[in-house]
Here is the input.
Amino acid sequence: MAMNHKKAIVIGAGIAGMGVALRLKKAGYEVNVFEQSLTYGGKIRQFASQGFRFDTGPSLFTLPELVDELFYLFDKNPRDYYKYLSLESITRYFYENEIALDSFSNPERFAEEAEHKLGVDRTIILSFLKSQEKSYKLLAPIFLENPIHKPLKLLKTKNIPALFHVMNPRFLQSMNSVNEKVFKNSKLTRLFNRYGTYNGSNPYQMPSLFNIISHLEHNVGAFLPERGIRSIADALYSLATEHGVNFNFNSLVKNIEVENGTAKGVWVNEKFHKADVVVSNMDVNRSFAEMLPNIKPPKIFLENQKSTSALIFHWGIEGEHPSLDVHNILFAKNYKEEFQYLFDKKLLYHDPTIYIYISSKAVAGDAPAGKENWFVMINTPHLTPSLANPNTDDYLEMKSVIIEKIKKYTGIDISDKIVLENITTPIDLQNTTGSYLGSLYGASSNSLLSAFLRHPNFSKIKNLYFCGGTVHPGGGIPLCLMSAKITAQLINEDIP
Here is the structure.
């Protein structure tokens, strides 16, 4: 007699959606994933043309073990699906007075580089990184790997040291305030402030607690898959399809059916699909607005300040440029003013910090011989529902600003070297990835309570759950995979 499997529906095939689908499949569910686009991966997309290939979403890979453990669930070797290399030099930082600083994955080597280039005592840097390692090891298991909106899970005896640690008065100070006091060097302060942008936040407002992000790069390491970031999504999709997860593309979920406070399934293309559990990997604001129009939205979680968005140029560049690394940052001279524009004035900044990611320096075949693939990004304000937003021309005006700044900071003039161009604006991000207001990470982390103001992985609607970058614990590949794990654990606890 055939077993009557419980049915799970996952809305969205982003990395968290695939992660939770795999975990529910392992738990014995029949899993259907409905994705409105034509492919999987969410923001982990790629663009290819004229021999160039670009990762169009995340570009830095940390904590690869979070990907690997999904393969171990099914007794598979992740290296049979994707391989990655460790980056010796993580990022090359360029400042306004022609100083180029390499951020090495080895803490000792990085500290020596900063001491040599910036004059900051190496022991101060190593001590700071050691303190971030201690904080991360204490706090991550409690606040990143747990459903923090479940008080009984937080208030356990074993969590007391972490709870006392997070009450340290220094965490009430901003990331920038602490970094200024520690380093007493504006250039190194900017470097460590930049970790605030990893979740689209303002380092001059966000709590210094988030300095723990620096631990992941400098103490643990940064990596790059041998076939680019997109290959992570490819690997998870292959694993999922091999084990019977059903993917339905070009399938827009119009409505989540709720009956007597319980999710019963979803409507797709005028057809109802029944399920025992529904998980939305869609932007949580859009989940409520578009799929739960008759449900009162939880405003405390949805009306918080949103993260930044981005303007991205994918450029095929003639020539090879050894003065640039895989990851590069060209800092704004007045970093604080840039964030005032992004969050307070909600305007494009005239001297933006520029991020350049060139995967072809490490990934064979990502550009034709003698050329490079440049992913060039600046932070922008998220779109607003009430204010006038920039139009395409406003964004395109930034192109000349960026090209001129690259020439000034690196000596490379690309004005006549761009042989291919593809542009992504915040409006495009909103339309193509489902990001509410084009915000890359959902809510920002600009207050001490911001973690608790992210939407939980569960909801007041029975059997309806959420995962992904706009809910707890946040955006980026590692946190999205943690989100998937938390969500699956909640489901297995809640649904017998």
